[in-house]
Specification:
six-stranded mixed β-sheet; about 325 residues; D-Maltodextrin-Binding Protein, domain 2; about 45% helix; signal; TRAP_DctP_sf; alpha/beta; transport
Length: about 325
């Protein structure tokens, strides 16, 4: 049921009148939340925490129903379905850089130092991110996280950028991530997350890059030999709605959903920090060889990406300077 659709009194009366059926309290509207996270992922835990918060506060006004593992579509499809009113929320991450160049700031390697830095960036620049979302027909209801990304592959350990030469590496559908890995010497291949395990298993690609929570929940450790701890990009995740549909909700419902978005961020940051320790061990226990990459070498090799973003994106250099400045007190 879409955001604005309500069960009429007649419909409720018809349900109650059916012999032998005990009436169950139904929410006035159902809100579908689709995401690509697998069972056990940070995505799943975060979305479930958001739904629990919202449903507890909304009572019979509305119910957030969760559909994970790409049941309602992959990220690109979910973005389209939001606008069509077929889905009410999704949880995109890197793909937002293809929605608007403003979100490409988070594709700059090593620009976000830690979660405290990210909170300061959010506090100072959220209006800019929301404006970019609104301009494209979306509303950011909450800002959570995907996490710090690392590289796995079946060819060799990656210590420096040159070790990526010739490796077929899956990336999300975002132009700046592709440019970054081309600069490093890899052969980047954009691909939907749901397709990655099979592509790794069959050798269509050699490797991929994701946070530990996505790696472990998708069981990439079962089809990868090497994990290189690069931490090359921190990707936020966005609790996203259609601007048009969200604006039609009653104001008190909007307020509750937004408040739960803030609470979901607190949950995600705490849980992500815990998973970074827990899941690295899970990956090691699966027999994956782990190495700490030379981050200074990657930072040096990333300079052309910063230069390109600064020159090609309107206001890009100012954004880079602002984000870097907000990181100086970390």
């Amino acid at each position: 049921m879409k955001l604005s659709q309500y069960l009429s009194g007649a419909a409720l009366a018809a349900i109650i009148a059916v012999p032998g059926i005990t009436p169950v309290a139904a929410a006035e509207m159902t809100l579908k939340f689709g995401h690509v996270g697998a069972p056990g992922s940070l995505y799943e835990e975060t979305v479930n925490a958001y739904a629990e918060c919202a449903n507890s506060a909304l009572g019979d006004k509305a119910e957030v129903q969760v559909f994970g593992s790409s049941q309602l579509g992959k990220d690109k499809e979910l973005l389209q379905k939001l606008k069509l009113g077929q889905v009410d929320f999704s949880l995109p991450s890197s793909i937002m850089s293809s929605v608007d160049d403003v979100f490409g700031i988070f594709e700059m390697p090593y620009i976000i130092k830690d979660r405290d830095h990210m909170r300061r960036v959010q506090g100072a620049m959220m209006d800019k991110f929301q404006e970019a979302a609104n301009k494209n027909g979306y509303r950011i209801v909450g800002l959570v996280e995907n996490g710090f990304r690392h590289i796995t592959n079946n060819v060799r350990p990656v210590n420096k950028p040159e070790d990526l030469k010739g490796i077929k590496l899956r990336t999300p559908n975002g132009a700046w991530r592709v440019k970054m890995f081309k600069e490093y010497g890899a052969n980047p291949t954009p691909m939907a997350f749901a397709d990655v395990f099979t592509a790794l298993q069959t050798g269509v690609i050699d490797g991929q890059e994701n946070p530990y929570a996505q790696i472990a929940s998708a069981k990439f450790q079962e089809v990868q030999k090497y994990l290189s701890i690069t931490g090359h990009v921190y990707t936020p995740a966005y609790i996203l709605a259609s601007e048009k549909s969200f604006a039609k909700l009653p104001e008190d419902v909007q307020a509750t959903l937004t408040d739960c978005g803030s609470k979901a961020q607190d949950f995600a940051y705490k849980r992500a920090a815990e998973l970074e320790t827990e899941l690295l061990q899970v990956i090691k226990d699966a027999g994956v060889e782990v190495n700490d990459a030379d981050k200074d070498a990657f930072i040096e090799a990333s300079k052309p990406i910063y230069e390109a973003f600064g020159s090609e994106v309107e206001g890009g250099q100012d954004m880079i300077d602002e984000v870097l400045g907000l990181g100086k007190s970390s």
